[in-house]
Amino acid sequence: MSVDLLPALRPSRVPWNKGRIIGQKRPLLPRHVWSIRVRLEMAGNARDLALFNMAVDSKLRGCDLVGLRVRDVFVAGRVKERASVIQSKTGKPVRFEITETTRLSLERWIRDPEMIGLEFLWPSRIHGSPHLSTRQYARIVRSWVTSLGLEPSAYGTHSMRRTKVAQIYKKTGNLRAVQLLLGHTKMDSTVRYLGVDIEDALSLSEGIDL
C-alpha cells in the first residue's frame, strides 16, 4: 500500500505544553513582589508570607527552600540576619541575607502555635511528610502568580530564585556577585540563568562615559 494512502495518525492526548509558555521562567518584578505581600498580609496567611519573603531573600532552589529547618534561620530566640545552607544539587554551602521584612514575617510564623516543637520551617499538612514537597511549593507559587492575573506557565519556583538577582544585576551589572548569591560554580551557568546577551552588555557599556 502506498504511504500516501495510509490514514493520518493523530495524538490521542493533547500535548502537555499546548498553549503554555515554556522555557526559562520569568522573575517577578518589584511591583509583583509587593502586591503578593499585601495580599498575603491581608489574608493573615503567616506561613505563606514567611515562605514568600524567604524565597525571594534566600534565592534558594525549591528543594533547598522546602528543606530548611528552624535552626537554620533561628537561634537564641531570634531570626538570623544571615544564614548558610548546603545546596543539595552541588553539595556546597551558599550564604544569603535575611532582610528585616523577612525576619519579622519569620518570627511571626515560628512563634505560631502551629510551629511549636517542629523541626522543619515549612511543615507539610499531609500526613507522613515532614515538610512541604517541591510539588506543593510549586502549587503555592502558582497560586501567588494567578492571584495577580499573570500567566502561570510563564512563572514557577525558579521565578522566586531569579527575582532578587535579576534586580541586582539590572542595577549593578555585577555578574560575580550574582554568581556567589546563586551558589553557581561556573560563571557560564550564571550568564545562562540570567539570560544575559549582547544587548545587556551593550546597555551596560553605553552607561559608562569616559
UniProtKB/TrEMBL annotation:
Alphabetized InterPro entries for the sequence: DNA_brk_join_enz, Integrase-like_cat_sf, Integrase_catalytic
Domain Tyr recombinase: residue ranges: 23-206
Pfam families the UniProt entry points to: Phage_integrase (PF00589)
Source organism superkingdom: Bacteria
An example Gene Ontology biological process: DNA integration
Keyword Cell cycle: no
Protein name: Integrase
This protein's UniProt keywords: DNA recombination
MF GO annotations: DNA binding
